[in-house]
């Protein structure tokens, strides 16, 4: 059975279905497909595993597919444009629907193509990684990378439905499972200390892919994210809390070169840096920082940037991040575990100290 | 003095300033610029004429420019991406503002870049062609072309202000002035027979660039368009009326190759085809069709497609137009002059006859 959450965005409200054996459930798709044409966007890794199942479920529609190369390195303008080539070569109309079958990269590119094709068509997310299930499939952020920065080109475009089938996590590499757990932990750090306690005591089950534990963690993560997004759809205010670890993380990813670090790994290390800076400001205790680092490490994630990355280089990249407003760098920090805040009220020297610090 | 119209879109309401000597008026820009960074997007033709004047007006801001090649043929993904290169090489932040200085192509590309840079930043339109002043600067449609079709990739993104300086029309080539008049005439054909009468009796002044006549025509055109857009921002319903002549026109443009026909020229011929089909259906009299063709011809515009374009080729291209819904081709036709309607209720054979007909 699917658990159903609803993201409440007025006229753009949509359901998130979470559970086993959902990929093939025609009924979950049907209500959210407008016309008769469906373009499935997937990649070379996920396609061979799940494309046939989804096509079977969508047998009543005119279904076509476009298969992209796999990986963050391909989240480019050039690869993105292939989706338009496919839509136009099939003469897909304005009432066509895009189904994004894959991880965050596929979801971001397919969603952004849906936002722009004929100035906006419908799309359904079918996330097949833990990261995409708890993060990129909720909130309507879509986009692609530019050599000068991640997600610099994009749009807000809400899916009509999200189908998160936990069975697809069985084929997920362990490293990607850990990367997804970074985002799961993030929701606890932002605003739910009880969820953080639960994650601490269930980390072994999660890493062992216990279906019940995963379903609970995905559901609670989506609930928290959906709540925050519904409060602030266009990121005017505290939706920025969801960027905990991300400004640090994006700088690490860019510095290390897209693709060498997974997004979740960079966010994991980024959250450790955020806790370190929060401690230097006087908000977190040393034991809070240690607990943060311990949780991140237990999830199989790095707790700091690569030794060779110079603090000045990271600082330079953080300055171009989207979270900069009026030349002022804003960061998400923690006033306590489970109590994140957005702030630009910190000493630059403390930030430099955090970026320079390499703990044992 | 500037005449000011207001496009009423709730929280996204914006002013259109129309008149002489507006380009250099700092006060018209200032209220609509968010942060301190301004990127002027212009092209190789308009830049040398007006860039310095706009930069002087914006002297208090951090102003940079990106100069694109001129012409519809350059309204591509590749050229569009140069705007992001410029924004990122200058590390422009989310509160930066794009100023689009040029015709419709510049406005469409700059506006679409503003829609997508960091998922949406502010932009101001400074249209320097008649076409852009009466059409592309009002309504929030932005986008680029794909080899398989015009404006297939884009977004709805409203400007914060439009500054339409009629002085810039003094440097406009005659052929482009005529192309702009096609859109002006369109507003009369859609819903204002009195405006059509006025245009008929003032065509000589308009072609002679009489400033008062131009200002009146621009103002009335923007009023009609703003009214229709305000009634239907996302083109769910009768905003489609604005496409009078466009489905035919896009097919002609695509067939002839982007850039060989101006958009307005194709729309002019397209409106003649729309009147011809309306006549075959029994809605317009023969004299209405002749009056339509006479008005279009007097404005210096073509009244039919090139002789060598096969009807079947045009029909094929019309089938991929955005106005197709559920496989059904919808067209804007006229039940009378000044009374356009959107309809799919016409005989395909009558459409074929219209596409095959070449009047003397």
TrEMBL record, chains A, B:
Zn(2+) binds at residues 183, 246, 263. It is found in: Cytoplasm. Its cofactor is NAD(+); Co(2+); Zn(2+). It catalyses: 7-phospho-2-dehydro-3-deoxy-D-arabino-heptonate = 3-dehydroquinate + phosphate. Residues 180-324 form the 3-dehydroquinate synthase C-terminal domain. NAD(+) binds at residues 70-75, 104-108, 128-129, 141, 150, 168-171. It comes from Thiorhodococcus minor. SUPFAM superfamilies: Dehydroquinate synthase-like (SSF56796). Transmembrane segments: none annotated. GO terms for biological process: amino acid biosynthetic process; aromatic amino acid family biosynthetic process; chorismate biosynthetic process. Keywords: Amino-acid biosynthesis, Aromatic amino acid biosynthesis, Cobalt, Cytoplasm, Lyase, Metal-binding, NAD, Nucleotide-binding, Zinc. Catalyzes the conversion of 3-deoxy-D-arabino-heptulosonate 7-phosphate (DAHP) to dehydroquinate (DHQ). Its EC number is 4.2.3.4. GO terms for cellular component: cytoplasm. Residues 66-178 form the 3-dehydroquinate synthase N-terminal domain. Gene3D superfamilies: 3.40.50.1970, Dehydroquinate synthase-like - alpha domain. The keyword Lipid metabolism does not apply. Binds 1 divalent metal cation per subunit. Can use either Co(2+) or Zn(2+). This is 3-dehydroquinate synthase. Pathway: Metabolic intermediate biosynthesis; chorismate biosynthesis; chorismate from D-erythrose 4-phosphate and phosphoenolpyruvate: step 2/7.
């Amino acid at each position: 059975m699917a658990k159903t959450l609803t993201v409440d965005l007025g006229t753009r409200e949509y359901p998130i279905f979470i559970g086993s054996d959902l990929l093939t459930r025609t009924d979950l798709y049907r209500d959210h497909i407008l016309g008769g044409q469906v373009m499935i966007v997937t990649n070379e890794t996920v396609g061979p595993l799940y494309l046939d199942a989804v096509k079977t479920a969508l047998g009543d529609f005119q279904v076509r597919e476009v298969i992209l190369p796999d990986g963050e390195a391909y989240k480019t303008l050039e690869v993105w444009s292939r989706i338009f080539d496919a839509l136009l070569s099939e003469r897909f109309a304005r009432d066509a629907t895009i189904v994004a079958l894959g991880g965050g990269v596929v979801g971001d590119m397919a969603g952004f193509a849906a936002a722009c094709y004929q100035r906006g068509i419908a799309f359904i997310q079918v996330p097949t990684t833990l990261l995409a299930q708890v993060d990129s499939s909720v909130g309507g952020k879509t986009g692609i990378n530019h050599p000068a920065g991640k997600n610099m080109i994009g749009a807000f475009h809400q899916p009509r439905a999200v189908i998160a089938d936990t069975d697809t996590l069985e084929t997920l590499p362990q490293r990607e499972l850990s990367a997804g757990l970074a985002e799961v932990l993030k929701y606890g750090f932002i605003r739910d200390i009880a969820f953080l306690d639960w994650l601490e005591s269930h980390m072994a089950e999660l890493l062992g892919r216990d279906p019940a534990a995963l379903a609970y963690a995905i559901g609670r993560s989506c609930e928290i994210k959906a709540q925050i997004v519904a409060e602030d759809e266009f990121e005017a205010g505290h939706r920025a809390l969801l960027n905990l670890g991300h400004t640090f993380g994006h700088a690490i990813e860019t510095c290390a070169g897209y693709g060498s670090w997974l997004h979740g790994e960079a966010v994991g290390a980024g959250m450790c840096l955020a806790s370190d800076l929060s401690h230097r400001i006087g908000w977190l205790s040393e034991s809070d920082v240690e607990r943060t680092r311990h949780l991140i490490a237990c999830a199989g994630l790095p707790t700091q940037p690569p030794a060779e990355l110079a603090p000045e280089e990271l600082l330079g990249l953080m300055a171009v991040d989207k979270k900069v407003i009026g030349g002022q760098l804003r960061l998400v920090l923690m006033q306590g575990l489970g109590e994140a805040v957005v702030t630009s009220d910190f000493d630059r020297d403390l930030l430099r100290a955090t970026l320079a610090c390499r703990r044992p």
